[in-house]
Amino acid sequence: MLGTQQKKHGGKLWLAVAPLYIFTLLFVAGPLIYMVILSFQTRAEGFGVINEFTLDNYKKILDPVYLGTFVQSLKLAVISTVIITIIGYPFGYFMAKCSPKWKRRLMMLLMIPFWTSALIRLYGWMILLQAKGAIYQTFHFFGIDIAPLKILYSYPAVVIGMVYALVPFMILAVYSSAEKMDWSLVEAARDLGASPAKAFVTVTLKLTMPGLLSGVILTFVPSMGLFFIADILGGNKIVLVGNLIQDQLTRGADWPFAAALAVVLMVMTSFLIFLYRRVTHTTELEGIL
Amino acid sequence: MKNKTKLPGIFLGIVMVIMYLPILMVVVYSFNEGKLIASWKGFSLDWYVKLFQDEEIWEAVKNSLILGVLSCFCASVLGTVGAVGMAKIKSKTKAPMEYLSTLPIMIPEIILGMVFLTFFHLLNLPNGMVTLVIAHTAFCIPYIYMMVKARLVGMEKSLEEAAKDLGATPIRTFFDITLPLILPAVASGCLLAFAMSWDDVIISIFVTGPKVTTLPIKIYTQMKTGVTPEINALCTFMLGVTVLVLILAGLIRKKLAKRQ
Q1: According to the model, what pLDDT value does residue A262 have?
Q2: Across the interface, do A23 and B138 touch by the CB < 8 Å criterion?
Q3: Residues of B171-200 as b/e, b for ≥16 C-beta within 10 angstroms?
Q4: Which of A28, A120, A273 sits opposite B101 (nearest CB)?
Q5: What is the ipTM of this complex?
Q6: In total, how many domains does chain A have?
Q7: DSSP state of B43
Q8: Which residue has the higher pLDDT, A148 or B39?
Q9: Alpha helices in chain B (DSSP H)
Q10: Is the residue at A197 inside a domain?
Q11: Which of A37, A259, B42, B228 has the fewest Cβ atoms surrounding its Cβ within 10 A?
């Protein structure tokens, strides 16, 4: 009797998870598997795909032109992530040391940049950085004569955009692990004679490492794909892997190649997350929600 | 021995100001009279008037709203029922399935956009509202799923057990006991998901058809072709909606925290 009841119950439970299972398998696993298959298929003349196994799409990535794009993307991602860490880590750290009242206030202030469209916020930078934009005008308003700015549509503008768009992720990740930290450990280290710097490196940095690493993943990975930042602030001069994929999907019409690029990006992402798990022994990234 | 300096405060302040400066710029210049986006000519509401007379904008607003509401609805049903079921089920498939269903927030958006585009093409689904809703549902599920899961962990099981002991069917228990308890989590997850859907450009660009334009797509294409202060007004409007949704989500979360 008990057995049948349990079985009946189990059946109902399966009904509860079935829709999520089906949707996930069909529309998350399915597309991802198809991406891998596609990356080994051959491109048809003109538009379309032929079902013929090939490794050419991956070989094509090694072509100097495309490899250059990868290197440029990686370089930009590294530069952005370093700057983001320099700004975001102290921010998250200091924020965790604030009074509860200020913590709440800062958190609320962070929510708007965190959740609103990066596109809209980047547009603000366009206004600021234009040759005779808001910054230029402010200087002139105060009677300081400066030359029209030459930042927009250049490499620094893209870096500014990336840092600006992604820094909230680093802040929240560092904050969420610094918040959980046991500060008495730092005091203990200080009492035992460690200098502030040594106490920071041996205790604080170590304990906030999961947040820092999570922040690095949350900023490094998207910075390879945010094509619209390079598009809008870089003025088509800077091509990232994201732009390349978008281009291959639309104008280039070479879907297998785009799929191969995406697979490589995906493998890099998974590798970073794998490393994160090995180092921190946790499964979930710090500070996502 | 406390050496309190003002430095951290100053640092936090400066970063916050820089964070808000561009947002402020967009809002301020939406009231600019002039035609150039970055030269101040005086206060006016002209661009808002123009915006509200623009049929295409209204069409985009309508599409964005339909898309946001539909995908949030689908995601909240799938995510909530799924999370409740997952909390009780004992199966080897649980861990990998949980990983898979929350995967979309870890994958770079561009990859998500591309896999949807190619997969929908494979299925012969014409790009348009249907494909948009499926794609948005997929990346909205994680927000709702994780919120509900966190709420279920902190919830007392005794009420559910009492209902079961009194002979309530699992479905009745779900609607009478579980759902009211997790409703705030579902609602705030929903609102966050809506905020994401409302702002999404990258994924939408790939899966939308020629006939369906959402607000962010409209802004993106205008930003690439030629900007007029009308975009400022449009951006300000979008910001307003997002902020409103976030405040609502915050209020619900506060209520939830009080109840716990």
Answers
A1: 92
A2: yes
A3: eebbeebbeeebebbbbbbbbbbbbbbbbb
A4: A28
A5: 0.86
A6: 1
A7: B
A8: A148
A9: 7-29, 46-53, 55-88, 94-102, 109-122, 129-153, 158-165, 170-173, 179-199, 202-207, 215-225, 229-259
A10: yes
A11: B42
Residue contacts between A and B (CB atoms, under 8 Å): 243
Residues in chain A: 289
DSSP state of A208: T
Q: What CATH number belongs to B53-259?
A: 1.10.3720.10
A221 at the B interface (CB within 8 A)?
A: yes
Distance CA A228, CA A226 (A): 6
Contact A194, A180 (CB under 8 A): no
What's the burial of B16, exposed, middle or buried (CB within 10 Å: 0-12/13-18/19+)?
middle
Of A14, A120, A226, the CB nearest to B26: A120
- In degrees and rounded to multiples of 5, residue B101 shows phi and psi of -75, -20
3-class secondary structure, A53: coil
CATH number of the domain that A94 lies in? Answer: 1.10.3720.10
B-facing residues of A in 87-126 (CB < 8 A) are 87, 90-91, 94-95, 97-98, 106, 108-113, 115-126
Q: Is residue A19 part of a domain?
A: no
How many whole angstroms from its chain centre is CA A70? 16
- A43 bridge partner residues: A49
pLDDT score recorded for residue B4: 60
Identity of the amino acid at B231? I
* Average confidence score pLDDT of chain B: 87
Mean pLDDT rounded to a whole number for chain A: 86
Distance from CA of B104 to the nearest CA of A (A): 7
Instruction: Name the region of A153 (left: φ>0; alpha: ψ -120 to 50; beta: rest).
Output: left
Residue A29 lies in a domain: no
Angle among Cα B98, B106, B181 to the nearest 5 degrees reads: 50
Both tokens assigned to B205: 């660009």
Sign of the CA dihedral with A115 first, then A117, A122, and A126 last: negative
Of all residues in chain A, the one with the smallest CA distance to B237 is: A120
Cβ–Cβ under 8 Å, residues A137 and B40:
yes
Smallest Cβ–Cβ distance between A249 and the set B105, B117, B242 belongs to: B117
- What SS3 class is residue A144? coil
Contact A133 B38 (CB under 8 A): yes
Subunit contact B25:A124, Cβ cutoff 8 A: yes
Structural domain for A104, as ranges? 57-280
Amino acid, single-letter form, for residue A132: K
Q: Are A125 and A233 in contact (CB under 8 A)?
A: yes
A25 located within any domain = no
Q: For B116-156, write each residue's pLDDT tens digit.
A: 999 999 999 999 999 999 999 999 999 899 989 988 887 77
Helix (H) or strand (E) holding A50: strand A49-50
Question: Pairing between strand A49-50 and A42-43?
Answer: antiparallel
